[in-house]
Design brief:
This protein has helices at residues 3-29, 32-64, 68-80, 84-95, 99-102. The chain has 106 residues and is mainly α. The model has no long low-confidence stretch (mean pLDDT 77).
């Protein structure tokens, strides 16, 4: 499986959980400094998610020998129309081999 991508997903989920807890605290305390920090953390989580999606879509495209843009468009369409893309993404992130497993020395 792709343990590197899986570790990125875990890291992203931990950051999102921390943001969620912090946002509840901000709601009660009205601390604007903490609110600003949480907004920055949200940007970081968004960036992590984008990197993970790009990596998995690129791996799928390479595995099937197609353009990564096509995989990204199909994934986006599946997410928009019922959330199927999220489930397929998680499955792909777990079962697809890392590039270095297919191409030694990469």
């Amino acid at each position: 499986g792709n343990s590197m991508t899986l570790s990125h997903v875990v890291k992203m989920l931990e950051a999102a959980r921390s943001m969620y807890r912090g946002s509840l605290d901000v709601l009660l305390s009205r601390d604007m400094d903490t609110a600003s920090r949480i907004c920055r953390e949200d940007d970081e989580v968004d960036a992590m998610f984008s990197r993970i999606v790009l990596e998995v879509c690129g791996g799928i495209a390479e595995y099937f020998g197609i353009d990564p843009s096509i995989v990204r468009l199909v994934w986006a369409a599946l997410v928009l129309f019922g959330g199927t893309g999220i489930l397929l993404y998680i499955i792909a992130a777990i079962i697809l081999p890392r590039k270095s497993q297919i191409y030694p020395g990469y």
